[in-house]
Design brief:
A hairpin with a 7-residue loop joins β4 and β5. 42% of the residues lie in helices and 20% in strands. The chain is elongated and about 75 Å long. The protein has a six-stranded mixed sheet with strand order 1-3-6-9-2-10, with helices on both faces. The protein folds into three domains: 162 residues, 3-Layer(aba) Sandwich (Rossmann fold), CATH 3.40.50.300; 29 residues, no CATH class; 99 residues. With 301 residues, it is of the alpha/beta class. α9 packs across α10 and α11 runs antiparallel to α12. The chain is built from twelve helices and ten strands.
Length: 301
């Protein structure tokens, strides 16, 4: 399990690429969040869900805690639990000839991630929450609806915690067909506003690829168009994303090469082949065979 606590300004907004597409979805999500409704950015890998969730959280202006979904997460990680123990030793030697020894052991309560966020009004960014087991995520049902976090029954003080009015939650999730992803509970999804994220538009992909790689927008556009053409012909929307363009562009920039298939563009063609083959390694055999054919056609153009 991986948890990161960030300050309200822990996200570097200067490195965040803004385009009309990004501004539109961010504005809508921020409107829902301010109204008290959690949002879930859902979509295939490589569509920038986590980055967008962190950017959104930074706009709220509260401390942010980032939790990565995992099958290893349990209720104690979220709520809290007893970890270790404290030992108390008392020696009473008031009377010289009599010694009284008192020793006691008791556990220490350590508050969990969700408990801390609920108590202190933080923004919880729960990345890929469907990778955690559904029974664990059930703890969020009362938090999002009744604004109450149930605590273990053996707690001496209270059996529940009232959620701070400034607490907010931002979720991301991958499609159910992805390995390691659980089907999200209907009751939990009903408490969120789902924002479906597909592939970026061409303008956004070019802007991101150029900014992340250091290539000019013209060269970035050439790479993005190649990748988009490949993605469309193969029908591999969930495998090939803007990440593919960024990788190709970053390698080209690092090697000091040009994004060109003409005039000794053999090296560039090999980079395209290696990167795209890496992206489709988990695709069905028929899809991979088609992809090989399409890549050869693209390079031969």
């Amino acid at each position: 399990m991986k948890v990161e606590q960030l300050s309200p300004r822990g996200f570097n907004e200067q490195e965040f690429i803004k385009t009309p597409y990004i501004d539109d979805i961010t504005e809508r999500a921020l409107t829902y969040i301010k109204a008290g409704f959690p949002v879930n950015f859902s979509g295939p890998a490589g569509t920038g869900k986590t980055t967008l969730a962190l950017y959104l959280a930074s706009k709220i202006g509260r401390p942010v805690v980032l939790l990565h979904g995992s099958s290893e997460i349990n209720s104690s990680n979220l709520i809290g639990g007893n970890y270790g123990y404290r030992r108390k030793y008392k020696l009473d030697n008031y009377i010289h000839s009599v010694q009284e020894v008192e020793e006691s052991l008791y556990y220490q309560w350590v508050e969990g991630i969700l408990g801390n966020a609920c108590r202190n009004g933080m923004v919880l960014v729960y990345d890929e929450f469907t990778r955690s087991r559904p029974e664990v995520n059930n703890l969020l049902l009362s938090v999002l609806e009744e604004k109450i976090l149930s605590l273990p029954g053996w707690q001496k003080e209270k059996h529940y915690l009232r959620v701070h009015p400034d607490f907010r939650a931002v979720f991301t999730s991958n499609p159910e067909e992805y390995a390691g992803v659980h089907r999200a509970q209907v009751a939990l999804i009903d408490r969120m506003i789902n924002l479906e994220m597909g592939q970026y538009d061409r303008h956004t992909e070019i802007a991101i690829t150029s900014a992340k790689s250091g290539l000019s927008e013209d060269e970035a556009a050439f790479i993005v168009d190649l990748v988009r053409n490949f993605r469309k012909k193969c029908g591999l929307e969930s495998n090939v994303s803007v990440r593919s363009s960024i990788r190709i562009a970053a390698i080209i920039h690092s090697a000091g090469e040009k994004a060109c298939l003409k005039n000794n563009g053999e090296f560039f063609g090999k980079i395209i082949t290696d990167v795209l083959f890496s992206e489709i390694r988990d695709a069905e055999p028929e899809k991979r065979q088609l992809a090989v054919k399409i890549i050869k056609e693209i390079i031969a153009q």
